[in-house]
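Reviewers of the previous submission asked for a worked example of the structure-prediction workflow described in the proposal, so we include one complete record here. The input consisted solely of the amino acid sequence. No template or homolog information was supplied to the procedure at any stage.
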Amino acid sequence: AAVAGWVQRARGRATVENRAVTLPDIMAEIAPPETRSAAMLRRACIHESGHAVAVERLSVGRVRTISVVETATQGGRVVQAPLDDDIPSRIEIENAVVAMLSGRAAEIAVLGTASAGAGGSAGSDLAHATRIVAEIHGALGLGERLSWRGEGDRLLDTIRVDPLLARAVEDDLQRLAKRAETFAAENRDTIERVADRLARDRV
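From that input alone, the workflow returned the following structure tokens.
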């Protein structure tokens, strides 16, 4: 769908200009000109590289693509493929959460501080991590209680009125964030090498 959209928009531009579509037209759709400052782009590269290195080294999946091409909703993204189709254990789920938090952790390790880029929206790293940890405790039977409390956004609503669940989720998020920060510090050189290439190629 994305490829078809790129081609359609490139054709539309060429049609308006009364000429044939060219490769630069398509490339302009795939990777439009960068408008962020050098500092913002560097942070995005570090952030996405942190995710990618964690996905690979924690055996969460296999990285298919990394991109820092900015869209209306994202400053970058990592696309990964699962390693297998087995039902995950708590350890494997927690490793996936660590990978989600490793973009933020990489910013801390390399740049000294975290930005707000890991949070903000319902599709953010922090939102996804919160949902998954909440499901560990309220849906998957992998926490201290076996009772099913809901799933996804329903569990987020439950957190607001259940202080025990809220505390369990926050404690785990803090613990896994520390794991992510340790991982990023130990793998800083690799993260920076990947970020340098990403800054050059963007994808």
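Strands lie at 62-67, 77-81. We consider this example representative of the routine output the project will generate in years two and three.
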